[in-house]
Amino acid sequence: MTGTPNSERLHIVLAGERNSGKSSLLNALTGQRAAIVSDVPGTTTDSVSKAMEIRGLGPCVLVDTAGLDDTGRLGRSRVDGAQEALRAGDVVLAVIDASTGRLPSLPHTDSPVIPVINKSDVADTDALTAEAEAAFGRKPVKVSALQCKGIEELIAAISEAIPENWASPLLTEGLVKEGDLVVLVMPQDVQAPKGRLILPQQQTLRELLDRKCRAVCCTTDLLRQTLEKLGETPAAIIADSQALAEAGRLKSDRTRLTSFSMLLAASKGDIDYFRKSARTIDSLTSKSRVLIAEACTHVPASEDIGRVKIPRLLRSKAGEGLAVDVVSGRDFPADLRGYDLVIHCGACMFNRRYVLSRVEQAKRQGVPMTNYGIAIAYINNLL
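Below the sequence we write its predicted structure tokens.
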């Protein structure tokens, strides 16, 4: 359980008004004091996440959010944070306070919403049950978070509501089969974490081993020597985006080529939209504006791929006047219409639902969106 990255866990987001009992419900679901509980409105200011294993659900991330009815300038910021957290929810629990009978006003979400009537032990809930079912299109679950009543029923309702496609597909789906020889090209440069592999490399290597493939790893400078000494032509080469051009020059025509970033694009995002949007690169000019979106919040390296290398490649085609903005982590503009193109990282730190919410936002606003690996492959005529 502890080895499952948060990005691959089921995300359950608790949303509702202040003092509706969201924090108490999170504690009841986890069986521990994971969130601070208080009668003071607005106790939960920032989203609180708890990763754990829940019997019947598996590895999960439970997210407690600030009240959606918070007020004032600071309260508005808290509400914005809660709404951002909702974008990552594979399942959303709309927590209703039985003592007030008010339904929370949730922003639009494509994820299933389960109404949860909390404090059901202190108020008559018959009328509220009918109202909640009509509003959310799903039968409410009645609980008492403080007394831990109704929790098993809630877990059963969550299990039933989980979308079939919530989990990311296999990274190497359709690329390899059992027994294939696969070469992984993994530069260990200044951007690589000391003493370990980055998450996409770890996940891909483990998946290849689980699929009974033969995996050979090397750095970019040793790729030619590695290919010469293999004794057979590899079925596929999976390279870091920065090594794509070199791998493309050295590979056999019988070897399939992709990158870790492109595997993530297919697994977590909308690869068809990413591929179509990459063509926008040809129409960029020195007056265009591009947004680079990173999931990580790392300290940039001197030759950072998102902040340095991709902008350099784009400007070599479009002109030095091309404007590039960079955002990281959960920072992402609500209005993308000022950009001619959005280029997103592989998003190994985000779950699939959250990545797709960003893609859907770009589509609604008519803004092309691609990702690091696909953009680099397109620029190098490898796509």
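The two ends are 37 Å apart (CA to CA).
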